[in-house]
Design brief:
elongated; mainly alpha
């Protein structure tokens, strides 16, 4: 009898985990994010508010998909490191919303975002050692974080 989980359950687990982290961050910062939308001066190229939940839902799904692919590789030290980096960046990602929206600590949030970007780069490289597709699914996330960095820095400077 095969004692391993069916592959689809691993994908579902990781995608739901990342989506749940995003949903919790959104729920905890919802009021502050609404206030932010009304009173904060935003930099040029700031997208409309509806873009963010759409983009993040897709990005969290890609994160979870990539992590699941890594989790399905044979157990090695490289896999442990890759998954630890995945969980670490997920925690840092979650906390960014708190620093930025709930506390309005735009400068600190920008530095936190730099830390997040570095973790995601390292995670992506670790994923690449195990599964190139898993690494490729992180590229939109890395690009979005660069754009988020531009927006975060702009909000910090303008407010």
């Amino acid at each position: 009898m095969n004692m391993t989980k069916p592959r689809w359950k691993v994908y579902l687990l990781y995608i739901l985990l990342t989506e749940a982290v995003g949903a919790l961050a959104a729920a905890l910062t919802q009021e502050a994010a609404l206030l932010y939308g009304e009173i904060i001066t935003k930099p040029p190229l700031s997208p409309p508010a509806w873009v963010f939940p759409v983009a993040w839902t897709l990005l969290y799904a890609l994160m979870g998909f990539g992590a699941a692919r890594v989790a399905l590789t044979p157990p090695t030290a490289a896999r442990r490191l890759a998954l630890r980096l995945f969980y670490a960046q997920l925690v840092v990602n979650f906390l960014w919303s708190i620093w930025f929206f709930s506390f309005g600590a735009y400068g600190f949030a920008f530095l936190w975002l730099v830390l997040l970007w570095a973790l995601v780069v390292r995670m992506t490289l670790a994923f690449r050692e195990l599964d190139r597709t898993a690494a490729r699914t992180q590229i939109p996330y890395l690009l979005w974080l660069l754009f988020a960095g531009y927006l975060n820095f702009g909000v910090w400077r303008l407010n």
